[in-house]
Specification:
33% of the residues lie in helices and 7% in strands. It contains 17 helices and 13 strands.
Length: 548
């Protein structure tokens, strides 16, 4: 359910034990400011830090599923408005930890800024309705249920539907194909008076790469609904919608567990946490009603933010003839114009294939470390996502990095020199920045670890991610491979679902023409969509009409 308290793998670590942010270290020394840590440890990423074997699609799919699984509920003022913790609301509750800037900050001082707004997540009781210790709410459903497309509430879902033939609402792209409907009002930076989009998650409008993947999933839903209507013309709107939604969710889950997670976690962690899909067309029988699938606080506030390290400086936009344009994110935030362009969705998708993801490490693009959501007309007034990540962990009472090493049965260190999963340069920077090894924030310690063999993250984040995705698999009655009565696919249907790849779904729902069979890889040969778009055999969903 949406707006449910997040669970925890480890108990909270608040300064007062109840809810005041973690601002002090082992010896009650004040922890270094998040912005200082960002400047000292997380310096600018460069082309040499790119993941040479992986495309920007890997980053985008990770961002998409993060929006599917989680969103915080941010505190509001008494009147229900947003809080400005740097100015008018700075002395109010939930404004205790704005990100203060040094007068000589190497970037923001040029623009006269002394503070970055930071609003605490809204406090809540725990899952047992006990409010002794502050917890936080998850705004959306925790499951991998494509809620970023369908919404996490009945009201949102109903607003996205036509209520005819199981279809989602659309508008027409200039090329005649479907787009998400335009949104009246709201925050949007189109320079050509175009509308941002109505979706299950407002964050779909963050940048054109994410918008384009949403377009593809929207089209896939409506395409599936039409195919089901053809094979079962007597099905009503509700049945068509729910079955099309079920198929799209299953395809997205299959892509995540079969293609995305193996790249991130590597074979050993995938096996350790039983995350691989069944090798044959057989059912998964591990569903357990005692497993809590709720998103864990450490996963949301630190571990799954590893993907912020994978963002490159720019998005690519590639024409059918191969001309490639690179545009910095600062010029793309919350601007849908590229998607509305002729061939705009296809140019964006080709561009995701033509640009590398960055490596998960201590280096971060300036587009998010100084210029997050910056308005091109007002340079210097964006934010710092990395400092925000560090602050969010403290806001949520996330224990320090070393506590997580112990929880995961990894070697713990009592000094900086005995850190086992960091390179010497990183160890030196951590020692210079933090007073004690126990003070290291989880995000900082985890994202800077050496990677496990065959993985893109280190052992601590691999542990937390493995535990969370196992809970999402074992605790979700609607997990696509489950053998639960009344919700399972037939084996023939499951066989069709398991043909899904992101490349096939893109081919079926765009005019891209040619694509890599594995879009998460970089530089592999392209193939003609005609040869790989192998559609679902919908005859496996055919039902006999009920007799009157």
């Amino acid at each position: 359910m949406a707006e449910t308290p997040m669970a925890r793998f480890l108990k909270s670590d608040y300064d007062d034990g109840k809810g005041f942010p973690r601002l002090h270290g082992k010896y009650w020394n004040r922890l270094p400011s998040p912005r200082h840590i960002r400047l000292m440890v997380h310096t600018k990423s460069l082309p040499r830090h790119e993941l040479k074997g992986y495309s920007h699609f890997l980053m985008i799919w990770g961002q998409r599923i993060s929006h599917d699984m989680m969103e915080k509920v941010e505190s509001k003022s008494a009147s229900g408005d947003g809080l400005d913790c740097c100015e008018e609301n700075r002395n109010e509750e939930n404004c205790e930890i704005p990100i203060l800037l040094h007068p000589y900050d190497p970037f923001y001082s040029e623009f006269g800024r002394s503070c970055l707004n930071f609003v605490r997540s809204e406090g809540s009781p725990n899952l047992k309705c006990n409010y002794d210790i502050r917890q936080q709410l998850a705004a959306f459903t925790s499951f991998l249920d494509v809620s970023d497309v369908y919404g996490s509430s009945l009201e949102t879902s109903n607003n996205l539907r036509t209520k005819e033939d199981g279809l989602l609402r659309t508008q027409r792209h200039p090329d005649g194909r479907e787009l998400m409907p335009g949104r009246d009002g709201g925050f949007c930076r189109s320079t050509t008076n175009k509308q941002c989009f109505v979706t299950g998650d407002r964050r779909a409008n963050q940048q054109p790469g994410l918008m384009s993947v949403h377009v593809i999933l929207l089209r896939e839903h409506n395409r599936v609904a039409k195919e089901l209507k053809t094979i079962n013309p007597y099905w009503d709107d509700e049945k068509l919608f729910q079955e099309a939604r079920r198929i799209v969710i299953a395809q997205a889950q299959h892509i995540t567990y079969s293609s995305y997670l193996p790249r991130i976690l590597g074979p050993d962690i995938m096996n350790l946490f039983d995350l691989n899909p069944q090798t044959a067309v057989t059912y998964f029988s591990g569903y357990d009603t005692k497993v809590i699938p709720t998103i864990r606080n450490s996963f949301m506030a630190a571990a799954f933010r590893f993907g912020h390290s994978m963002i490159n400086d720019y998005l690519g936009f590639t024409s059918a003839s191969g001309d490639n344009e690179k545009v910095l994110f600062r010029n793309l935030w919350v601007n849908p114009d590229r998607v509305y362009d002729t061939d705009g969705v296809e140019k964006t998708l080709r561009g995701l294939q033509a640009v590398h993801s960055q490596r998960v490490d201590r280096f971060k693009t300036e587009e998010v470390s100084n210029r997050l959501l910056e308005n091109p007309q007002k340079p210097g007034f964006g934010s710092d996502l990395i400092a925000t990540n560090i602050n969010r962990g403290r806001d949520h009472g996330i224990a320090g990095y070393m506590a997580w090493r112990r929880m995961c049965n990894l070697p713990a260190s009592d000094s900086f020199y005995s850190l086992t999963d960091h390179c010497p340069k990183t160890i030196a920077l951590l020692q210079y920045t933090y007073r004690n090894v126990e003070d290291i924030d989880l995000f900082v310690g985890g994202v800077t670890e050496r990677h496990l063999p065959g993985a893109l993250v280190g052992p601590t984040f691999a542990c937390i991610l493995g535990l969370q995705f196992k809970a999402l698999k074992y605790g979700d009655r609607f997990y696509y491979e489950n053998d639960e009565d009344r919700v399972r696919f037939t084996t023939n249907q499951l066989s069709e679902i398991k043909k899904a790849t992101l490349a096939r779904i893109i081919c079926r729902n765009s005019n891209i023409g040619r694509i890599q069979e594995d879009v998460f890889a970089y530089g592999t040969p392209e193939v003609d969509c005609y040869n790989i778009q192998d559609d679902i055999n919908f005859s496996n969903w055919e039902e006999a009409a009920e007799e009157p």
